[in-house]
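Troubleshooting entry. The earlier prediction with 4'-deoxy-4'-aminopyridoxal-5'-phosphate gave an output that would not parse, so I re-checked the input for stray whitespace and re-submitted. Clean input:
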Amino acid sequence: MPDIAYVNGRFGPLAEAVVSIEDRGFQFGDGVYEVIRTYRGQPFAIDEHLSRLARSAQALQLSPGHTKAEWNSLIQEGLRLSRLPETKIYLQITRGQAPRDHPFPPSLAPTIVMTFRELHPLEASVRKAGVQAITVDDIRWGRCDIKSVNLLANVLARQRAKEAGVFEAILHREGMVTEGSVSNVMVVRNGAIQTAPEGHRILSGVTRAFVLELAKKEGLPVAETFVSRDDLLSASEVFLTGTTVEVLPVVRVDGSAIGSGVPGPVSQLLSRRWETLVS
Ligand code: PMP
């Protein structure tokens, strides 16, 4: 089967999958999600992603949808049916279907959706050359740690990046860099890695946690602290982390070169270590 979807207990072709227009995900963005990718056919860091899904759901008083064991077997079933070389697995839980009203009815059955699509990795030449980014005001709500389907501010930021002809929008709030529209952001200053701390201002990336561990193993100093937009622009290296971007060097921000304008040694080292980790 090509790209497939799962909706409330049933697998089928993605093109035929539907949910009600009264679904609160559609009406209010009342839901949470995860994106997991496979490496050599196996989902990577599935436990970490499922834990974050459960945390996001709990923060919104949403049903967890399934137990971890159930999610795991549904994901394996989806992979078995789709048989893609590498898969981008999308999981979504919304509060369910109800007549439109802001407060939610008690014990509503959640809507559970999964999609299994072919993963198209970034081209090796792009990864090698690094990408460009722009900075954009972070206008998101106060709970960016929840992986909510309410992505409007991220959508608008990434659209700005696209219109500017660059890969990512790096968000900043009151002068402090938070994260990218679809990634976490790390900078290298005076040989040390700095990245925004966990908390309500960022999504705590699964990749971010692995990369910080890899950095520590290499003996690189790591500080989970906010950096200013000026510090970002004058950093010797900037790189993005995320499920789809992996470890991706940024060589220009707002048109100015980062360091010497090519991927630096720390980004390259961590990128190589990442490749080893996932292979
Ligand atoms: N921040 C945001 C806003 C994201 O959308 C993502 C991608 N899910 C990340 C960070 C990176 O998270 P992860 O490493 O878990 O994919």
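This one parsed fine. The chain is about 30% helix and 30% strand.
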